[in-house]
Amino acid sequence: MLTPAAVHYGEADKILEKREYTLATAAERHPSRFKGKLPALDKLPIAVWINPPVLPDKMEKIAES
Questions:
Q1: What is the DSSP string of 3-56?
Q2: Model-level pTM?
Q3: Largest alpha-carbon pair distance within the chain?
Q4: Does 38 have pLDDT greater than 80?
Q5: Residue-range domain boundaries for the chain
């Protein structure tokens, strides 16, 4: 999980790289805790919305209602 501030100020990639390194190091030192594979890290999404913008075709349907 990344904070909004980390994403906004461009720190997300650095945080994800450090997280990946930390997990790899932990797996190397304690392989029994990871059952043979590392957890998958999520990629940084292109965009996130609280209220996504309404697309033009949906605006027409809303206007017709």
A1: -HHHHHTT-HHHHHHHHHHHHHHHHHH-GGGTTTSPPPPPPPPS---SSPPPPH
A2: 0.66
A3: 62
A4: yes
A5: 4-64
